Amino acid sequence: MNSCDLAAIVDAERRLLPQQALAVPSMLSYEERALLHWAAREGCGAAGQVIDAGCFLGGSTLSLATGLSRSAKDPEDAHRVHSFDLFVVGGERERVYFESDFPFEVGADIRPLFEANVAPVRSLVEVHHGDVLNTTWPGEPVATLFIDIAKSWSTNDHVVRQFLPALVPGSVVIQQDLVHWGHPWCALTMESLMDHVEYLGHVSYSSAVYRVRHAIAVDDLPTNLLDRLSAAEALRLVDRCAERVGEPFAGHLRLLGATALMCFGDYAGARARVSEVRDAYDDDVVPYISEGFALAQIIDEAERKSSAGDRLDAHGRPRDDER
Prior knowledge:
This protein is α/β, with parallel strands linked by helices. The chain has two domains: 6-220, 3-Layer(aba) Sandwich (Rossmann fold), CATH 3.40.50.150; 229-310. The chain is 38% helix and 13% strand. It contains twelve helices and seven strands. It has helices at 6-13, 19-23, 30-41, 59-69, 111-117, 153-163, 184-192, 225-228, 231-245, 250-263, 267-280, 295-307; strands spanning 49-53, 81-85, 125-129, 142-147, 167-175, 197-203, 207-212. It has a seven-stranded mixed sheet with strand order 3-2-1-4-5-7-6, with helices on one face. It is globular and about 55 Å long. The two termini are 37 Å apart.
């Protein structure tokens, strides 16, 4: 059972969130921005740094830093929002977030836009510009961990190793890609940690929220999951996460089961799961779930590549080329 009414918290927090935090172009919903504001402002009572892992144009950064500025924490504790990003355009699909006069191209530098957007709270932000895989967290306690940068198995492993041991009881973990069909490592990681964390709920569109109950020892970190789990074990964890999330958004997690099975090489099982989900859910029940039905083609292509001897990640790419 959840220990808080997350929907009520987010609804109330919307009234505290400044308009500028809603105006920044972002892939985050307004509810997710309000959630971040709450997590940094009040959260579940833990004291420590705020990790903004994947900030794009600064929507998450502005929400977190504004929340932190309004917290009751002692300013002498020097808490900051630590923002991690490559600060480059990642793909053509991101074009919609930029003004027409921006010289858009994949790989274009977006750091100046980020700096302009977070200028009102810049004194509270420490920027870590570059590949997160090359960073090391010094071990300072973390009160809020927002993860929107774990887009592959290898990046997820690095984030887990660097930040999870720094969490303390009462820390809040927000996994932005969890209630979605495309990122199995997020659900597998958090379900593997249920002895240490408590699920508080999720907000539209895909951020799941957890409270840390017990510190996480290095030996308990759920890394190398592709090697440690079988396909059946992975599917069991994903389906358990779906039950935890509840209907109707469990549909995204049930579809995630197909992605997980594909990653573990069970292509027939993956195709069967896509068919099951397509029969049970549509966009009227779960918004945007139909986008995931294209998994059928991705699974076929992944199986073809696998037959050719490639080791693949969740996107049908060679596993050694995940970055």
